[in-house]
Amino acid sequence: MFNVLYRIDPRRMVSQGYEYGEAGIRSFTETYGVLETITTIEPQENACSKAKVTKRVKERPGASPLLSAVFLHGYWGVRSLEDISANLPPYTRK
Question: Could you say which of 34, 35, 55, 88 would form a disulfide bridge with 60 (CB–CB 3.0 to 4.6 Å)?
Answer without folding.
Answer: 34
